[in-house]
User: Fold these one by one.
Assistant:
Number 1:
Amino acid sequence: MSDDVLRIRTPIGIKYQYSAGPRVSSHLIGLMEGRFVGKRCPSCHLVYMPPRNGTCAKCGCLLGEDVEVGQRGTITTFCVVNVPFLGQTIKIPYVAATILLDGADMGMQHLIQEVEATEVRMGMRVEPVWRPREEWQPSMENVLYFRPTGEPDAPYESYAGQL
Amino acid sequence: MRDVAIIASAQAVNTATTTATPVEMLIPVVNQVLANAGMARSDIGFWCHGSCDYMTGQPFSFVSAVDALGAWPPIIESHVEADGAFALYEAWMKIQTGEVDTALVFGNGRSSSGDINRILTLQLDPYVVGPLWPDDRSIAAMQARACLEAGVITERAMAQIAARNHHNALTNPVALRRGEHSVEQLLAAPLVASPLRELDCPAHSDGVTAVIIAAGDRARSLRARPAWIRGIDHRIESQNLGNRSMTTLPSAVIAAQKAGVANDKIDVAELHAPYTHQELLLTAALGLGESTSINPSGGALCANPMMSAGLARFAEAAARIMDGSADRALGHASSGPWLQQNLVCVLEGE
Ligand SMILES: [Zn+2]
């Protein structure tokens, strides 16, 4: 029938208060100071950066002491983004990479710029380019992107365990 | 059927707020229940978790809970979007299959992440009732009002239940709310959602409960007096409030029957009744009499950690068997408006 109700709108809204937790907080405070602060697992001694949700998933335990890492790091693996998509803010092709910061045992994702996509490679040494200090927030977005340092590439063995 | 028993439990101290992440809250309780059982993570055959994404407001938030388990080498694990008591039911089934002999079951929730009375509105039918945004208290108050008008309960009986549970919680170290209140004091308190007063409503809290269950001789080797699961049954009412009885709980009646509640005397019952009038409805539906001690822990009225309060009832009932103070106990867990879901478990000593 033409007057059947086929669709209704029932908007819902709930406000939540997100808590980073004490362990991730020291990491976020570090970012406000332009530092990369990770955490060491007291059981397997791996350094997590970022410190995930404050836990070592492998050991099932709470992370322990703060460990400052970086700021330089090594590209362990990467992908070249060639596909345009809605809301894209970066000119394609560009590179998203997994970066192992010096002193960390866990790679993190970030953008690679100031280099042609075709020149990016595994083992390439990179450093962060921070936003102007007055724009810093408790967020990894304080780092605009990573760029090559010009150092010789890291030997494969130094990051083979990450792959 | 394989004989399966609860052999250990642990609960976090319930709090009104917390800054820890859900997984940070879980780890100490998982460690504690393992210590209480004298077991290592590698001794656990199956892990089963109850939680709800609406509590944290994060899709797939339960995935991070696995980080509390130390899932390396890989483990066998499952999750229910429900109270941990329903995870215990799944774990009991898993042991029945013969695949595993032990299971660690846990439920957790941080009620303080949002407005819990409003979050619970989202469990209502999203077409007709949900868009009116009745909060949890208002829905419960409608049921209490219907029961009063039908003569099923009295305000005085509700106050007596509030007084007893808050008194019992004085000796429960993990309760959030406790205290001595006279019935007259309680009846003089202002209404928060007529006919409910503040202490007729649950003390919503942030909390974690973990329980270990084991089969047969494995249970006997781990605990001198395990709490044997002699019957367990889960029944559900219609999700359409208009199809529901407001003054009786037919699903709880069936669950109690199937779980064999009436086969012998029940010494202790831990009922997951968030509101005072619901304890009365449950006591009637489960056929519990004067000889049964109801909610020695203070129940969900004194600490209602969402997704963990039902499992806490099982833990409290089992504790009375394990310490020898009861021979036959009942654990009950519920979920949904007006006690829509009812899970009944009969526990016995040997
Ligand atoms: Zn570790």
Note: The domain at 4-115+204-227 of chain B is CATH 3.40.47.10 (Peroxisomal Thiolase; Chain A, domain 1).
Number 2:
Amino acid sequence: MSEIKNPAVTSDQSLPLLKVKDLHVYYGAIHAVKGISLEVHEGEIVTLIGANGAGKSTTLNTVAGLLKPRQGSIVLGGVPVDGTAASKMVFKGLSLCPEGRRIFQQMTVRENLEMGAYSRPREEIEASLEDVFGRFPRLKEREKQIGGTLSGGEQQMLAMARALMSRPKLLMLDEPSMGLAPILVDQIFGIIEEMHASGVTILLVEQNAQMALSVANRAYVLETGAISMSGDASDLLQNDDVRKAYLGS
Amino acid sequence: MIFLDNLINGLSLGSIYAIIALGYTMVYGIARMLNFAHGDVIMVGAYIAFCGLQYWGLPPVLAFVVAMLFCTCLGITIEGLAYRPLRQATSLAVLITAIGMSYLLQNIALMIWGANPKSFPTTFINGSSIRLGQLNISTAAIITILANVVIMVGLTLFTSRTKLGKAMRCVSEDRGAAELMGINVNRTISLTFAIGSALAAIAGILLCSSYPILQPTTGSMPGIKAFTAAVFGGIGSIPGAMLGGILLGVIEIFGKAYISTELGDAIVFAVLIIVLLVKPAGLLGKPMREKV
Ligand SMILES: Nc1ncnc2c1ncn2[C@@H]1O[C@H](COP(=O)(O)OP(=O)(O)O)[C@@H](O)[C@H]1O
Ligand SMILES: [Mg+2]
């Protein structure tokens, strides 16, 4: 394991917003995540890159409470949250935009967004809707349209907007660029940068390492369930091993 | 005139099927299981109403409310004790459990109330009839059809307007995504069983008001037919259950009137088979979506 040190972002400068330590996750006998540790600090974009099947989604789903870890600890804002039901995590300030979007296909755009705010008091929803429509004007135009009739890119925007509706302290995005045309990929990453600029802390999982590393502050490289490299995103972008394995050069 | 008579009888019987089918279809849509004990909850509801009227001297409305409350609790209990522990089990295990629960309820009823049929008392529902020209319509038929309309409108409003109702739709579409929104899936499933079972009690009361013979197997046949109606309309679809129930009732009555009394049930199931051959997802059902 090679560590690229970055003196600007050391872990002890503040309490991390998310601290995952020695996480082990199994699917039956399959050991999918083998002792992952990672941290996300407030205001950062951290990306988790790796090949298909490396365990990225498993890691995010475990942090979100959808899967139970066999071992390890997950601490969110100083509070241990491992073993917390997925439906409680959003109340603790964590929101996951899952792989494959998983918007509610039979509900309208607006209903999808309202469901994203399920954890919040009714009187705050209107303001959040306005905020989200400001970021995603396309969704505003399609407010009454049924989710399943949106294009792939619009569905991805809806999924991200829905995840934002809970006003999370930490937003986790699982492969937001998956299956999208290059121009839409650029657009999605533009939105991610905008969200970051407006103060949202983001943990981003991607197979598109080039894009992910160029928007992120720090990165972890995941290989068959374990972290093989970590450090400053711009350093990893220059790293020869990373370039060979994930950037195709 | 006979035609209109049959039509009204068909609509009334169909309304009962529809109310039962709603319970099947909602539970299927949200918990992804066939609750074969649902028909027997109807029977329990009818017995409780019977006891309220006959033994406890309750006024009819109160007896019916007690029956509904009892079935609501029964539904939540059955789900919590028998089905919840099997949430991760195979659907076959759940199905067998549901069949076992059906027999359990019938046998408990047999222990408490015996095998001899009870005659369901006369109340405001089935006491009289209304003359419309040459047509003689029983109040039971009118009340049954009206109850069905009210329930349909109520459920539609509930699932389209309220936060809980929308949460139910989310769970029915994607359980994992619903959890990520903060929706408590177990509670939502309990709520579904509660609503379905309260509707079963209403169906039991309406059924016994039109066909006043009550015994431990009273719920079986209407249960199976309502399940058929739910599949017919498209299982998981609320309007589908309504349409399937009504059509089934009308087909059954007309089949008995114009084709053959003995073959009435066979005709019903033959129609089901034909519909499923042509539209495997049922009349209003959505074909299974591919996960992208
Ligand atoms: N539901 C599942 N059952 C069994 N194995 C699974 C399941 N989901 C993922 N896996 C396995 O776990 C490993 C990690 O998968 P995943 O976390 O989805 O990887 P990634 O998101 O990095 O592509 C893979 O080997 C995959 O085959
Ligand atoms: Mg993945």
Note: The interface with chain B takes residues 64-66, 85-88, 90-91, 95-96, 98, 100-107, 111, 114-116, 118-119, 122, 148, 162, 166, 179 of chain A (CB under 8 Å).
Number 3:
Amino acid sequence: MSIENKQSARRLLKEYAYSLGMIDKGYANRTLYIDLSGNTILEKPVTQEMKDKFTGGKGFGLKYLWDAVTPATKWNDPENEIVIANGPLCGITQYPGSGKSLVVTISPLTNMPVDSNVGGYFGPFLKFSGFDALELQGKADKDVIVFIDGNKGIVRIEEAPVDAADSHVLAEQLTEMFADSEEDKRNISVVSAGSAAEHAYIGLLNFSFYDVRRKAARLKQAGRGGIGTVFRDKKIKALVVKFVGVKGNLNHPADQGTVNRTGIKLHKEIHDLDDKQNRMRKIGTANIIEIMDEYDLLPTHNYKFGRHKDTYKINSYVFQDMVTQGMADGCWFGCSMSCAKAADNFLLKSGPYKGQKVVVDGPEYENAAALGSNIGVFDPQVVMELNFYCDTYALDTISFGTMTAFIMECYENGILNKERTGGLELNFGNAEAALELIHQISRGEGFGKIAGKGVRRMKEYFVKEYGADPAFLNDIGMEQKGLEFSEYMPKESLAQQGGYGLTNKGPQHDEAWLIFMDMVNNQIPTFEDKAEALHYFPMFRTWFGLNGLCKLPWNDITPAGNKYTSEPAKIPEHVQNYVDIFSAVTGKIIDKEELIRQSERVYNFQRLFNIRMGYGKRVHDKIPYRAMGPVTVEEYESRQERYDKQLQELLGYDPVGKSTEEKMKVMRAYREDQYEKLTDAVYKRRGWTPNGVPTLEKLKDLGMDLPEVVKVVENNL
Amino acid sequence: MVIKMIQVNGKEFPWEEGLTVAELLKRKRYSYPKIIVKINGTLVEPEEYASTAVRDGDDVKAIHLLAGG
Ligand code: SF4
């Protein structure tokens, strides 16, 4: 279609003109609000108080979401919002990892706020177009596209001009349609969800960036919590932003020199050390597949085991050979860590795009574990194909993998059978059945319709419809708060059990990843040590989301002198870099303590948001026993020596002559008690009551004693 | 025979004559590339793993710098 025809095919529903502004010290000082029910478009000012209390990014998103919903709001109510925010450091091009968007909404999986951190160009382009955040409320009648032209100062709501449903096609078509020329495509970013997001609760959002060398729109995912499901429920087909003229100083930092110098220091480190350390530039996060296996931490067969004899078939060197090398891939300008890997000309063997050659992004570690070992599939072709379909259909790879693993264990235990799955033989390792399942989910058909609702809903369904034992399902169903666990084995690390369980959005490891510090290094032996780590790391990591930053350049590269520092796990030099660039961009001078307090403000606000929605207390922080210890005899006996030794050393219990069942019972009582003790210690350290409610003193100390927040505390003490 | 012990990351591990840092890391299956090794508080550089002996009763720390995904 010619450009003229494309233009005329677009039907305008609403146009809004705004005056272009200038970003001042990292903030556009304005946000954009769109109500799709009435096609209302508004601008909102960003106040100093908002910046002081919420910093930006996820902080802004949660504040707007709080104001938009009531405790009764469900994910598919029109008042639910999707907020996409960037953050004050987002869009700088000098420091690696500075182009992230933060997305929040009320999740269909958890019925409370979920947040997801995503690359691609949308967040920075949104800011350069004049907005620190975009709120989307209401529901459209028909599929729509929201288009922001950041140079002309125009926002348009249009009827969706394309029929394509899946993201790899949509992103290409819309990039083509909204760009004036091939050269112009780099100025476009598209946010979309695919066909599965219309049926499943685990729908994700794809954020595109145009890869000028591949001449293809690449996709990065806001994966967790079903945000894509909400997006399609609002009948949004896509968001498109266009901005021409990206340069290094658009944020108008208070002190550009410091931003430049700090960035150069890190670029040099990455250049000199990455090949010797994590090979992020060669293979990205997949570098840890074989390491996780070696340390018995790679989830295998629904987290029963941490290791498999066939892991070598899907190790990072196999994927390194599949992804195109020699193309440094960053998901935002200036990221020399460049971990965004892709395989070109990948031939699909199943589904609606069978026979086509496509670009597949990834795989990241999480995908290889979720779509590989956890479901017992050790065929890299299949892992890549599932990865492709998850992305284009808009399914969260982590939730898809964990829930398929759960289904497979149910199948092997007779809770499911061929009749109940409509003919799918969902044993561990059945790649063909896993592929058919994903296609069924995308069409909302057959067993795929049930599966796509996630582990929590399936547990309820299997108990009700098939008379399954709820206790067993609760033990093996790896979800908490309704969200599926991400892909690490926490059984042998109490601190990581807390890192999964004592979180705001559910068991995603982005708050704390403490397995090595705890289980291998034994650096945090006491409950107080673990509690300190479960205070510090979640707060430190929350900060990336307030600022539009990527976490990876913090600790996937370490300075040569790091080992001589007193706290190497924190990477003190990099913490100082963040303090320096925040101060340099915003002009607000902070230190490393204030950095943590910025996060604490938002973290406690989010905790109280959960409580306001009826969740977020101690009872919601419990985790399934599969995350804590061996549920089945098979699991215990596979690591009998380890468990017997622990019984003896930790409990003085003599395992000799005892049955496996007896030993498992003793072990379980011990481990569950440990988790309770850890919970007590962590709540205390975070300034919460034993029931997990932030105290008024804590809020006052943080300056977060806002009337509506105080009310929630008072109602829940 | 009395088994002699060293401490590795605060936990007991059997020691035997001729044990080097390299051999110890192998036995513990510590294959991660970013490990900091200290013996009784003194840093051992990777080039010296093969030639550095671990002695009876030593306190060895093998700190893995992996803070995860
Ligand atoms: S480290 Fe990877 S994910 Fe993070 S910003 Fe850079 S390319 Fe993107």
Note: Chain B has one domain: 5-64.
Number 4:
Amino acid sequence: MKRLSILTLTGVVTSLFFFGALSSCKPPKKDSGLSADAASKVYVAPGKKDEIYLFTSGGFSGQIGVYGLPSGRMLKQVPVFSQDAETGYGFSEETKPMLMTSHGFTPWDDSHHPQLSRTEGQDDGRWLFINANNTPRIARIDLGVFKTREIIELPNCGGNHASPFTTQNNEYVVGASRFSVPYDKDGDQEIASYKDKFKGTISFIKVDKETGRMGINFQLLVPGVDYDLSRAGKAASHGWVFFSCYNSEKAHTLLEVNASQRDKDFIMAVNWKKAEEYLSQGKGMKWPTNYAHNVYDEATHTATSTMMKEVTVLDVKDLPGVCYFIPCPKSPHGCDVDPTGEYICASGKLAAVIPVYSFSKIQKAIEAKNFDGDFDGVPVIKYEAALDGEVEKPGLGPLHTEFDNEGHGYTSFFVSSEIVKWDVKTKQVLDRVPTYYSIGHLCVPMGDNIKPFGKYVIALNKITKDRYLPTGPELTQSAQLYDITGEKMKLLLDFPTIGEPHYAQACPAEIITKHEVKFYKLADNKHKYAATNEKEAKVVREGNNVHVYMTSIRSHFTPDNIEGVKVGDNVYFHVTNLEQDWDVPHGFAVKGANNSELLILPGETSTLKWVPDRPGVFPMYCTDFCSALHQEMQGYVRVSPAGTNPALKFSTGE
Amino acid sequence: MYKTKFSSLVVAALFFITGCGGSDNKTEADNSEAPQSMIADEPVDDGQGIGKFKDVTLAAIDEKLAKEGQVVFDAKCSACHKTTAQKVVGPGLAGVTAKRKPAWILNMITNPVEMTQKDPAAKDLLAEHLTQMTFQDVSDEDAKKLLEYLRYNDQEGGEEKEEAKK
Ligand SMILES: [Cu+2]
């Protein structure tokens, strides 16, 4: 039924396309049978697998969505910055430290830009990074297990939006501040002192090649504008990073009006190799600060959170050659580098053209000091000196561009709600197609790599309206899939997503599946409270803490009868799943717990904390259907009144 | 029901485009795989089971190896099996080395999912116990140690031993 309605909708789309006023290009042949063709292109037969993984940001859910393309089937939600009751992430004792920040336990955030790790400018499928916008953080997800393994907080930063972007070989994951703020060490300033006291930062996070372990190598102190989006240079421009900046007016109120005054804002070009030189010459300053670094240890199955006390900073206005501004029409959003690394195109949300800059011209302009003064001590390169050309009249409200492997750019237009295909060399518009509705970012599989995969473009839409069955005032979020293999882009599919899909990255499945982990080996389990076989199962009291070393296997817990617990005890159920095959998780829940369930994967140990509030007998059970005898997978804990002295007893099958 | 209807719709749609000369996509209706349990052609049963072991010949019981096998058994098997005749999750394993060929046992340990789908004796066991035994990430070497332990257990008379303990 659902499929049928997609067919019908696609039919509607086709007719809109034929008769709509939006299209300024030649209409496709009327008998091309677009709708039926679309069905065959997205149909993945039962039991068959999709060709591509799509990782979408969960937006204000704080998570990541994983989808298969071309079917648009949702495969998984990876919890990152928000607690997730379904998996126990952020509820279990092992994962609570993942959500620690300098502000304490921070169980929610707003995630925007998933970014795959890369080797030689190509997605390598090892890790996925994503930003927390609100309480600035960057997370690393391990794509062998599809789990968040590390989160690092960014000090001296407000609104970590231009983040995270990886350099060609993952030398750095880079994140810049959206909201300029006074730096942490003297943060208490009048808001009206914005122009003097409010500044931005760009954090350069080093990534260990083997383990993926992150660490802030240095932060650049940069002028107090809003940094919006970014891309690292590659190939020709490897060694540089480019940022879009708005609010060069430095407004601190009613930005809607006040940050849209000047007819040009900036692209900022940063030479990070030069910054590294200054760093090695000892030009960095050590500033006191406080930020959390949370790491999940694969061997102990346990995360730890460490508060870091110091960060190294470099002030760009004292370090010539690190930073340059380039004028850019009106409030740019996307700032994207083409596959050759030579062209950098910026999408001014309020602009009438897409400027395309040339990296080699930028280098010449720097050499010739072809500047138009400076902005807060940073030289401003002349617009014409950096410009390669402009895409004229592309549409309204350009936002973001990705590329195929044939020299085409695909730019999203929020206001005119369309995707426009253009030629990077000639700047000619080649095709346009409407999106439903109001596209934000878009994604071409490997569209920011040196060799894009192409084939599709995915529209990540901001408005849903009438595209799906209504679900009350709050509608599903939505994405759309377009075929870009022909001269004309073709709409193939609408599919719903979780949270606002700000941005997404996609790559062929085999890049990811080669890292697949099927279960955790019990022999490698170094959890402090693991019971790796039933003989190790036990209950131990230490003052008011009761540690239950419990095992689960289809379909019983050991122990499954426990007595000797008292009201007010801290009971820790450390449950080890003894299964050693994939797809055999067990769950665990106990009545009255002010907590979520646990979902324990094969070979894993997870801990649920429970503080019983009254005497009685409390059932516990397995929550994930595990076998024909799953319904028998249950047990009891007896809780005696506080102040009594019941003997500790535990057993299974007695 | 739902699926059948749904794919016939798609097939119908595919037919429709082919009619318009739109594309020459193969219909994909025929390539969904039947679940393994419905596969008809069963191999001839030689009592060796299905897997990489065949015609395993045995020497006299090596007690040292059997002891090592017991360690593996306690870690990876004891949650589901006793070495007496008593069923827990899986069957009690007393007497299993008299009942089954050595290769069959080794195949059951290292390839239980395929065994319970295709081997007649293992299929019967699944029908009786209704829990799928899964591969416990046992190396071939450890599987042989386990077999040695089960042989040792049978030689010692697993059942009486357990009785004696009580
Ligand atoms: Cu279970």
Note: The pocket of copper (II) ion is lined by residues A 555, 586, 622, 624, 626, 630, 633 (CB under 6 Å).
